[in-house]
Design brief:
The protein has about 180 residues and is mainly alpha-helical. It has 6 helices and no strands. The chain has helices at about 5-35, 40-50, 70-95, 100-125, 135-160, 170-175.
Length: about 180
């Protein structure tokens, strides 16, 4: 059997993880979230992003291939650190019912998603899977897909914020849904 190269395995693992986590989200997580209030539905999804501080590992000497550009590593590390802080602040704001909680969640999720896209651009441009990533390989192929699925779910809840938590019968009786 022909041997697959590292970039092929890398992308196959990411796509498989997104697919599997997507199924888990749809079958198990989403039904549970729909039974919660708006704030408490967003909170567990934001916790996924608090752990993005792990990206700072990219700056630890000897953890990844020294041939990876320092600018790529620092952008990824500090972008993730900022997202972790924004996610944590959003959780505090949601749990405290602050008026600015929802706008803060929007900021955190947009920032985190744009940071993820920027990181993806760098990964593709530099062909990062061809470098020695050591244990960071798992962050890219296992944790990043969870982050992607979480971002999508947060956006979905935010876009449905006006109707979140209302039953189908309540929606049917509301003036904007009347026929």
């Amino acid at each position: 059997m022909a041997r697959m190269d590292s970039p092929t395995i890398f992308w196959l693992q990411i796509l498989t993880s997104v697919f599997v986590f997507g199924i888990v989200a749809v079958v198990y997580v989403w039904p549970s979230l729909t039974k919660r209030s708006f704030n408490s539905a967003l909170t567990p999804l934001l916790w996924v992003h608090v752990f993005r501080y792990v990206g700072m590992t990219l700056l630890v000497t000897g953890m990844v291939d020294p041939k990876l550009p320092a600018e790529f590593l620092s952008n990824a590390a500090y972008g993730d650190l900022l997202e972790a802080a924004l996610a944590f602040a959003s959780i505090i704001a949601l749990r405290s019912n602050w008026r600015l909680a929802t706008p803060l969640v929007w900021v955190a999720n947009i920032w985190g998603f744009v940071d993820l896209l920027n990181g993806l651009r760098g990964v593709v441009r530099l062909n990062v899977p061809s470098f020695d990533l050591a244990t960071l390989w798992y962050v890219y192929t296992f944790y990043a897909p969870v982050v992607i699925v979480s971002h999508v779910m947060i956006f979905w809840i935010l876009f449905r914020s006006k109707s979140w938590g209302r039953s189908a019968s309540e929606l049917a009786r509301s003036p904007q849904h009347a026929t």
